């Protein structure tokens, strides 16, 4: 659990505890067990409602960040909006050894051909990207129509350091709420020069940016 979430939960708990203690001190309830019941119900409500609100807010932010609620302005953005917010990312080291992994991504709201991946800076993909920025990506596919996209015309820029990442998050709405621990991670900024959109039904379509 991250520090921010712990502090939020602690504040909610203190409020519910204080309110419950206040109710137990009231004198107009003569039935002791009824007093405990009322105090417990009110304390439970005070505790659960904020937790529910925080959970809904978190889920909404993640849906927006993964591209599910992004405004569709082009063929490429339409495809991203229909697909899960995960893709295969292939990187290579200086010896040409390829490392492939599944990552969660978010699309930039300013440039549709820019995708962001948040990862531990110690991972192989992050270390490879620092020394070899040329990468390849491939999305998961829609099981109904087989819609998917891929690109081997992509380069990555690794952004690290609390100040640099904070500035990026402040200027990039899609990254806000994407990861609570983002300032301690590395952000991979993937820029596509072209992508191929495919499906079971239609012929491959090349999209250039």
- E-strand count: 8
Largest sheet: 6 strands, antiparallel, barrel
Quickly give the structural class.
alpha+beta
Structural shape: elongated
Strand content: 25-35%
How would you state the average pLDDT, rounded?
81
Helical fraction equals 25-40%
SSE arrangement, N to C: HHHEEEHEEHEEE
Q: Please identify the oligomeric state.
A: single chain
Description:
The protein has helices at residues 3-24, 32-65, 75-82, 124-131, 162-171; strands spanning 86-92, 98-107, 114-119, 134-139, 148-159, 186-192, 194-198, 205-208. By secondary structure, the chain is an alpha+beta fold. It has a six-stranded antiparallel beta barrel with strand order 1-2-3-6-5-4. The model is unreliable at 64-72 (pLDDT under 50).
Entry summary:
The protein has 209 residues and is of the alpha+beta class. It is built from five helices and eight strands; from the N terminus they run αααβββαββαβββ.
Q: What keyword list fits this structure?
A:
alpha+beta, six-stranded antiparallel barrel, 5 helices
Write the layout of secondary structure elements.
Blueprint: H1 3-24, H2 32-65, H3 75-82, E1 86-92, E2 98-107, E3 114-119, H4 124-131, E4 134-139, E5 148-159, H5 162-171, E6 186-192, E7 194-198, E8 205-208
């Amino acid at each position: 659990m991250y520090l921010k979430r712990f502090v939020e939960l602690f504040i909610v708990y203190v409020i519910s505890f204080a309110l419950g203690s206040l109710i137990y001190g009231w004198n107009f309830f003569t039935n002791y067990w009824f007093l405990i019941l009322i105090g417990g119900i009110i304390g439970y409500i005070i505790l659960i409602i904020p937790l529910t609100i925080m959970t809904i807010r978190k889920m909404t932010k993640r849906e927006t960040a993964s591209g599910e609620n992004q405004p569709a302005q082009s063929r490429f953005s339409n495809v991203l909006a229909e697909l899960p917010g995960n893709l295969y990312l292939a990187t290579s080291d200086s010896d040409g050894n390829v490392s492939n992994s599944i990552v969660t991504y978010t699309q930039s709201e300013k440039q549709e051909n820019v995708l962001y991946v948040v990862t531990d800076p110690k991972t192989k993909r992050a270390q490879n990207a620092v020394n070899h920025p040329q990468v390849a990506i491939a999305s998961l596919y829609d099981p109904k129509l087989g819609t998917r996209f891929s690109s081997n015309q992509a380069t990555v820029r690794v952004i690290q350091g609390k100040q640099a990442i904070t500035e990026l998050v402040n200027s990039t709405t899609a990254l806000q709420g994407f990861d609570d621990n983002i300032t301690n991670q590395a952000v991979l900024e993937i820029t596509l020069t072209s992508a191929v959109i495919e499906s079971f039904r239609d012929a491959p379509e090349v999209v250039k940016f």
